[in-house]
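User: Sequence in, structure out. Go.
Assistant: Echoing your sequence, followed by the structure tokens.
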Amino acid sequence: MSGRLKLHAATLLGAALVCAMLAARAAAAPDPQLVGTKRIDSRLTELTLRTPELAAPTHVRVLLPAGYASHRKRRYPVLYLLHGASGSQTDWTTAGNAETATAKLPLIVVMPDGGRGGFYTDWFNNGKGGGPRWETWHIKHLIPYVDAHYRTRATRSQRAIAGLSMGGFGTFSYAARHPDLFTAALSMSGAVDTTLAPSVIDAIPSADGGGFGALWGDYEANQVRWRAHNPLDLAENLRGLELWLRTGNGQPGPLGGRPGTDIIEAGVEGMANNVHKRLQALHIRHVFDDYGPGQHMWPYWNRDLTETLPSIMERFASGSRPPARVTFTAAEPQYSVYGWRVSVRRPALEFSQLSNANRAGFSLSGSGSATVSTPAAFKPRGRYVITIKKRSGKPESYRVIANRRGRLHIVVPLGKGNPAQQYAPGTTTKVFTTRVRIARAS
């Protein structure tokens, strides 16, 4: 069989694998069950929901805009507001000023529980798997539930996320791992670089009964899993979002504080500074507000939220479009973003990157081989020429037919798969890059 025919056969096989993967995902995503509703005041309601992603029912507070009931045809943007470690869904409406700050805004605010030490991730449990699966719950289930049961503007351009401390990590991690879901992200005293203090981060799940390694495993042995959720490592994915990093330096400030240095706030200041420098290096627009004296306390987070809300509302009003060229980094073997879907086949866990993806083509970096499915941007049943160019060797071309939705399924050879997990002690990961060109067949 010629190389061209092999590539064409591999394309068909890859397309079948992608379809099977998506069907399996859909079958494994049951809707959450509403098991309780508590009306707290005229705007605020607490929902109790049951989901297979969590062992016990979980709580979500929903803050509706004034006049929501009387304006039955009006739809609203949504802000997801995350709490910190040892907190709950109640924090932003008890200690926080979310209700007062949004009193005059046409905005729905959703405040989910994230566990006292859940860290907004699906726990690895040192390889045992299982739950809790906070990220899957919030991203795959809660957002669709909110859009289905409230009058939201259910688009990326009308959805923002914000959080404090552990929730600041969740905000930037969710935004970096799912940038096609959010138009803006605000981190307040966020732990946005977990590699700066992995032993401290690893201790936080103990609040929910988790031991060391509960989140992503032992740091030294599973560094790639840590980095796969770390905003610093995923900073490139944040391009196209409106971003704010707000932090104090740990000293007592104008809104109060304890004598001496608050080591938690001083620590997250270092994390925010690392992400700020990374965003600068990538030329990604953002606001970095290191406001100096200020500690890990509610008065500062309340101020942060109040000061940022007008800009978030302006972002909703102006609208935003997905980037014209998509670049996305992930360690998962399957991922999707802005309509692009990637499925990588390789022996070990490592990062891959889809770069400069548009209708004319893309690059893919990593090892092994992959199937890349494009967005539905092509003529249904149209014929296209795919040209594969690796770093060495001559380009190879073959033809594909877009499916009835206008998607192309393209197999991308990279290079021999690395046998060991990336960043594992004593290992070297080779990265191969393949360029793919897409052209209409004559």
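User: And one key feature?
Assistant: DSSP finds nine helices and 19 strands in the chain.
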